[in-house]
Amino acid sequence: TKDHVERRKKKKRETKRGERDVDRKLTHRPRTDRLSLDERYELVRSIGEECIQEGELRNLLLKKPDVVAYDGFEPSGRMHIAQGVMKALNVNKLTRAGCTFKFWVADWFALMNNKMGGDLKKIRTVGQYMVEVWKAIGMDMERVEFLWSADEINKRSDEYWSIVLDIARRNRLPRIVRCSQIMGRNDSDDLSAAQIFYPCMQCADIFFLKADICQLGMDQRKVNVLAREYCDDIKRKNKPIILSHHMLPGLLQGQEKMSKSDPNSAIFMEDADHEVNTKIKKAYCPPQVVAGNPVVEYVQYVIFPWFGKFEVQRSDNNGGNKMYLRMEDLKDDYVNGELHPGDLKPSVARALNEILQPVRDHFQNDPEAKKLLATVKKYKVTK
Fold first, then answer.
1. Which residues pair with 310 in a beta bridge?
2. Using one digit for the tens of pLDDT, what is the confidence trace for 58-107?
3. Please, which residues bridge with residue 147 across strands?
4. What number of other Cβ atoms are within 10 A of residue 297's Cβ?
5. What is the largest CA-CA distance in the chain?
6. Phi, psi dihedrals of residue 73, rounded to the nearest 5°
7. Which residues fall within 8 angstroms of residue 1, CB to CB, at 6 or more apart?
8. Residue 62 to residues 32, 35, 238: CA-CA distances in angstroms?
9. What φ, ψ does residue 323 adopt, rounded to 5°?
10. pTM value?
11. Is the distance from CB of 316 to CB of 247 less than 8 angstroms?
């Protein structure tokens, strides 16, 4: 009958719609079954400037189905582009390879390190802002967890402090002080007692969170090595793998790192179009020199990984537009003088503005996010 035919057609449409929904969900999810072990390893290994140890990483991906990677961050002010874009790229690689990523929102640690003047309420507000930035830039949140250190430690305090005290008991003070770099401090700084205890706690975080991979910056290397040494002390066979990403330099000459207290040292995630243009225009960019050149590094570590290519737009008199598909080709042209800073800089600014536009839109159009950013901008950044 006519009704019967219509019912069959409707059922067929619903079946196809359901199949499309399933396909969409599966496409969104990290599908490790679509990646070989070699592909998963290469994807994860590409994150790190250094990996300790590569053999352990491959074995981990081979044998453990639920790999946990972690990073901790102090909510200490506005987010710069390395923490925003580079971290989103790295997290998406790890989750695509089948890992779960745990963000340790280190509110207590920021307090101990005197960030936001030691005001925990302000610190937590900054932490909420940072999560909003990562959502806006396109971090895949399906396999990502945000854990607030104060909340988690209070929930399982007996477990946490037992690990901290054992680490502290097994290490001499000079070894702990050598880790002060993780807080943006030096060995010679006049450290508070809280700052001396800080490395023991950060080392404990790795075991408390049951992290298999420590995916932090090169500046956090010393405390991650401390965690591996602690495994030797307690005769633990499975050590955390250290996957340390590259640290972008500051934009001005002589700045090894970006600084949240110096707004000219970095591009921030919600910087306006004209602010990005001005900062890149003023950035240190010596002709024919790529080593220590922050503008070249922005191309290598931000723009190329984001787009997979980079276009230099310039007048015909200066060689015309050129599309680069390999970073090595761009470096060769720059060193040989075929690519001038005057052409590189505007093209870098243009690409960065395209990357950052969704973040600007989010903080402009979402009322809660807009209010959050306005609040954070009023805070004074403290060291």
1. 324
2. 999 999 999 999 999 999 889 999 999 999 999 999 999 999 999 999 99
3. 104
4. 18
5. 89
6. -140, 140
7. none
8. 11, 12, 14
9. -100, 125
10. 0.85
11. no
Three-state secondary structure call for residue 14: helix
pLDDT in tens, 161-213: 999 999 999 999 989 888 876 666 666 667 888 888 889 999 999 999 999 99
- Whole-angstrom Cα distance, residue 158 to residue 100? 25
Length of the chain: 383
Gap between the Cα atoms of 220 and 225, Å rounded: 9
**For residue 32, pLDDT beyond 80:** no
Beta strands across the sheet bearing 213-214:
50-52, 241-244, 213-214, 68-73, 100-105, 144-148
| Burial zone of 178 (CB within 10 Å; 0-12 exposed, 13-18 middle, 19+ buried) | middle
Intra-chain end-to-end CA distance of the chain, in Å: 78
d(C-alpha 290, C-alpha 342), whole Å = 15
Distance from CA of residue 114 to its chain's centroid? Answer: 22
**The predicted structure's pLDDT at residue 92:** 96
Distance CA 376, CA 126 (A): 6
> By C-alpha distance, which of 195, 177, 196 is closest to 187?
177
In terms of Cβ atoms closer than 10 Å to its own Cβ (0-12, 13-18, 19+), residue 185 is middle
DSSP letter for each residue of 337-374: TSS-HHHHHHHHHHHHHHHHHHHHHHHHH-HHHHHHHH
